Amino acid sequence: MSVIDNMPIADLVARQTPGMTLEQPFYTDPGVFARDLEAIVAKQWLFVDHISALPTPGDYITYEIAGESIILVHAKSRAIHAFFNVCRHRGSRICLNPKGHVRTLTCPYHAWVWDLEGRLIRARQMAEDFKPEDWPLHTCAVRVWNGMIFINLAPEGDPQVADFAAMARDLGPYIDHANLAGAKVVHTELYPTDANWKLAVENFHECYHCAPAHPEYTQVNAYVNDGDRDPEGRQKVVQDWRATWSIKGHAVDFLGPETRDPRQPWTVFRQPIRDGFHTLSQDGGYVAPLLNPEREPDDGEALIAFGPLFYVYLCTDHATLFRFTPVSTGFSEVRVSWVVRGDAQEGRDFDVEKLKWMWDVTTIEDTKIINDNQKGVNSRRYAPGRYSEHEGWTREFIDWYLSRVA
Ligand code: FES
Ligand SMILES: [Fe+2]
């Protein structure tokens, strides 16, 4: 039983109050969750993994999202293809493991075989008039950009899907210089979260909670406390940093609603970290070799948002990739991957404990507050509350969400 069995979703959306959190069903109702998958998740460019997950032809990974399983495979042609993990015979799953190395894609049920380009090359004991070329795997839209693999569950050309090229054009100046295509993931952690995906995203979109919830993050990032205590002093530091680095051609500004298409969910926040801090580490020292040794490091940090389910936190020496996967109404998977330069060697150039410190400790803390948020939202007495002035980006996400889900 879902609240939208009796009420069109547009009516539920229309009665939400701007500036307030959503009503309970948006966080607890399976019908709304199903609608989220159709209207939001199935229309977004979804980050799957970094290209270093598929180093050689024959390597594959699968990604489970929105009731689908998608196979990403490195083909002999060197292209990365994405296929729905659905057999063209009677619909079985084809790849049953999350990753592997194969010469062909073979269905375990009746052993139909496809090559890595998705062409059916063998089907046993079929009638004379059966034409294998009529039964390729169903392709899924895929883009590889700056070493990151994205898919889209909607058919190519769906008008509700954002133009990938527009996103790349807006975000490119903040990320192209980092050589992520030649970089590699050296560590990944999963943070299973007992909450609706929107609570996880709302939390990621605001730092109102940073001072009470994240002592480590707050100690490293001057903008949290200094921004509160002495906003003008902080503004001056940021302006001086911007003036210094914009002359050298670095993208230093925020990419805000004024400078981008507000109907799209991507944006960038870029700023200096703290006096004497080169990167997001415990002591401010670099934790890996510079991603681009040819470029003078400006020691800034960038939060690059691709959409509600994928974010890159970019420093000059490493990148952290955040993938949010809605799994069910009250469960989400948050996966964090740490990326360093391709030639960096563990032990010599980086130490995983130091590299992951900032975002591991912070994400563990976030998981706890998000879980507690969901528990409270589940209460009979939960009612929408008012966002603070420090939660502008969260509000922006909610406004965008409501406009899409209706
Ligand atoms: S269902 Fe795949 S070969 Fe029959
Ligand atoms: Fe947080």
Account of the protein in words:
The protein has 2 domains: 46-152, Rieske Iron-sulfur Protein (3-layer Sandwich), CATH 2.102.10; 164-405, Naphthalene 1,2-dioxygenase Alpha Subunit, Chain A, domain 1. It has 11 helices and 16 strands. The protein has helices at 9-14, 25-28, 30-39, 164-175, 197-204, 210-213, 215-220, 222-229, 231-246, 352-377, 392-405, and strands at 46-50, 59-65, 68-74, 80-84, 99-101, 105-106, 113-114, 120-122, 141-145, 148-152, 184-193, 267-272, 300-307, 310-314, 319-328, 331-340. The longest helix is centred in the C-terminal third of the chain and has 26 residues, at 352-377. The radius of gyration is 23 Å and the shape is globular. Strands 11-16-15-14-13-12 form a 6-stranded antiparallel β-sheet, sandwiched between helices. Strands 4-3-2-5 form a 4-stranded antiparallel β-sheet, with no helix packed on it. The chain is α+β, with helices and mostly antiparallel strands. Bound molecules: FE2/S2 (inorganic) cluster and fe (ii) ion. The site of FE2/S2 (inorganic) cluster has 8 residues, from loops. Fe (ii) ion binds next to helix 10.
